[in-house]
Amino acid sequence: MIFKNIFLSTAIYSFFLISCNNPQNTKPTKEENQVGIIKGNDFRSEAMMKFTDAYVNNDLNSVSDLFTEEAKIMVNDADLTFSEMVAGLSSGHNYFNNIRHEDRDAFTMHYKEGKIAGNIFTHYWYTWKATSKKTGEEISIRGYAWMKWNGDKVEALYNAFDPTLYRAQIE
Known about the structure:
The protein is an alpha+beta fold.
């Protein structure tokens, strides 16, 4: 029994030493395997929050200065101008009360590698909630958006969500 315990203890200890010396188990240095730099609470992340607050308050024209004149805007893959986006998103206020974003989070990624190296994107996750004027039902939809930056201006915006519940209330 004593030999069995000694053998088992030696085997576990040897495995531990081998594992610790294995380069695959070491943590990379700060610069190794770094695809980019993530920033939160920076001016770009705050700009995303300002943009979404303007949407909730039905005041998107107040944030037009965030965008380049030729900004590419996509909502569920529909290509829109800034004016078309404002009209489309503002029209939702005709069908819903108490539009808001909950469980929201934004951060900005400065990409260093890959196909989008050198680009800066602000990513945003949220839960869109509102009360239907038609049925009085509260609707909840998860969404995701990003802004692509050119300096301190947005050159592209993408917003994705499942429009099924939304459309059912406006049709």
